[in-house]
Hints:
- Helix content is about 20%, strand content about 40%.
- It has helices spanning about 20-40, 70-85, 155-160, 165-180, and strands at about 90-95, 100-110, 115-120, 125-135, 135-140, 150, 180-190, 200-220, 225-240, 245-255, 260-265.
- The N and C termini lie far apart (about 100 Å).
Amino acid sequence: MPSTGQEPEDEGPGRPNWLLSLLVALACLAVVVSGWSVARLTLGGTEPAAEEDGPPQAPQTSAAEADPRDAEAFLGLAARELREAPSFHISYTQSMDGEETGHGWARHEPDADTAFEHFFRTASGVRVHRYDLPGTGLMMTAEKGLSGMTVLDPPSEADLRLCSVEFALATLDELADSAEDPKLVGTEELTLPAGTEGVAAGTHTTYRYTGTFPAPVGGYEPETGRNTLTRLAGAEFDLWVDEDGHPRRLSFTSPEGVGATYDYHALAD
């Protein structure tokens, strides 16, 4: 096409071309959007996911706030108070059809040589000592079935339960989680006898709860030198919890007649 001989006028800095400015702005916007899209593709095709919070945690109830008539809540409180106690001492007996088959004690103290120590004597007189030693692991010795101190490597399920602090803690956890038809019976004055290692007797005002749960019972086989762990369904329990939410006594008997009683001494807050 022949030229008209007319050149575009020089608009100069004082007269901006609004159409050109609009085009430039649109181009810049396109670059920004394009860059954001590329960044999204580079990072996996989606916008960064927001951090997922865990399931909402129910607020923990203190002993002052808990209603003793709410059996499930108070059982949970007792299990938590024991697990959070910096130290404790527990004495216990095992029985069969009302006849004692063994007794022992367990302790956990922050400044002790062992993380956990557990002693048991059978009705026939066999003594068993179980330990959790920091830096060494689970260990045990017995008058029959073992020759000297034995390191349990690898430990069985029974070893993990009976030679560690879980011996004292897990039973109440399981009771709180799996108790069927727990109910408050009433308020009682409970006197615990003196324990070993200088633990004094004491009397406590307690709430008494009853129900059933699958009770774990530990044992020892002198013939094999092995720990055993049996869970007995439908064991009937009585649990005494003091006004501060501390467990003080747990007693249960299975339908087969196997029973145990745990006295919780010297719980520190």
